[in-house]
Write a structure and sequence with these properties.
Length: about 375
């Protein structure tokens, strides 16, 4: 099978990392991957061993010429189907391009942002199938009017092995510039408003008073970095909150964290939560979007209502005070990842959608041929 994947993200985290896992899994099963992505992006380099990479200009939702560029590529490489992996212009422009060339097209939806019903009716008409990465996203799409017969759920997945190693605590605290005895709380998310960093910051002065060894490390980058830095200064949290940026050593850091907090207001699923669970780290997170599928309340973490700073602080404080419960929740997370979030399961789930769609297309062609023969 020849599959053209389209991904508009430039950095290798979140959705783009899921694309890489899928490309590797499909390649191992003997399928031929083609990848359209932005020039110079991290995914292009990582995917080169398992995909025929076609990098091109991609300028997001306003890039009206992306449809023409993708249509020319589809005509040239003649894929069996097109799989669109991001909203950064790829969902609409890629859908238009596939329709222009008559190629079957699938779009993976990774976020639970609500969309107007009129937009859902127009946009998703471009796609033969829409794959939601969580039941939470699927519920949003159904509520907005997407027909159930075109919607499938294939959960995101990760390889837990890199995150399940031992903790070299002295090395990691020194690397992050933390005291050797720090209680390390991590947030692993883009620095954007809907991830809820600002809500967490408001709870920290009281939390630090109760837990004097607490240090918060924010891993990620994004447009809110300057505003968060200003708020950290205003709250007097210098030296206690660390904006660590994007880290390529996260797999070494995660096993040393005492707690991961994810106070997001909206979330499709949360790949960072799967990574934390794989590392055996307990999680406090919002009951938003697909998060309850990655964080099972009482199994590998504690869920609180989105935006509820008081309950968030209570849950964090209770876990920081109870190492035994943290260990139990961490072990529960590792068991959950092995059971429900395997990469093989994700790859096979996508393949099932591919095969279903191609069989449907073949049936349509056979019926048309039979009708023409009779006439």
């Amino acid at each position: 099978m020849r599959i053209l994947h389209v991904e508009g993200g430039r950095h290798l985290y979140g959705g783009a990392f899921q694309v890489l896992h899928l490309l590797r899994g499909l390649h191992a099963r003997g399928h031929h991957n083609l990848l359209a992505c932005p020039r110079g992006c991290d995914l292009a380099r990582a995917a080169a061993p398992v995909a025929e990479v076609h990098d091109m200009p991609m300028h997001g939702d306003a890039d009206l010429l992306m449809a023409a560029r993708l249509a020319r590529l589809i005509a040239r490489v003649r894929p069996d189907l097109v799989h669109l992996h991001s909203r950064i212009g790829a969902d609409v422009m890629g859908g238009i391009a596939a329709r222009l060339r008559g190629a079957p097209v699938i779009h993976t939806r990774r976020v639970d942002n609500p969309e107007p019903r009129w937009l859902v009716a127009l946009k998703y008409r471009l796609h033969d199938r829409v794959v939601a990465i969580s039941e939470g996203i699927a519920r949003v799409l159904r509520d907005e009017g997407l027909a159930a017969d075109r919607l499938r759920v294939v959960r995101s997945a990760i390889d837990p092995t890199p995150y399940a190693g031992p903790c070299a605590r002295a090395l990691i605290t020194a690397r992050l510039g933390l005291p050797a005895d720090a209680l390390m709380v991590g947030v692993i998310a883009q620095l954007i408003r809907r991830k809820g960093h600002a809500i967490l910051l408001e709870t920290l002065p009281a939390l630090i008073a109760r837990h004097p060894r607490l240090h918060l490390c924010c891993f990620g980058q994004g447009p809110e970095a300057a505003a968060l830095a200003e708020r950290i200064d205003a709250l007097g949290l210098q030296g206690r909150v660390h904006l660590c940026g994007f880290r390529d050593d996260l797999a070494e850091i995660l096993p040393c964290l005492d707690l991961v907090v994810h106070p997001a207001l909206m979330e499709g699923l949360g790949v960072s939560l799967l990574q934390a669970a794989s590392a055996g780290v307990p999680i406090v997170a919002s009951r938003a979007g697909g998060i309850p599928e990655a964080v099972r309340d009482g199994e590998n973490g504690v869920l609180v209502e989105p935006g509820d700073a008081e309950t968030l602080a209570t849950a964090i404080s209770a876990l920081l005070a109870d190492p035994g419960r943290r260990r139990a929740l961490g072990a529960g997370g590792q068991a959950l990842m092995r059971r429900d979030f395997s990469i093989d399961g994700m790859v096979e789930g996508n393949l099932a959608v591919y095969r279903e769609l191609l069989a449907e297309r073949a049936g349509d062609h056979n019926r048309k041929d039979a009708k023409n023969t009779k006439e």
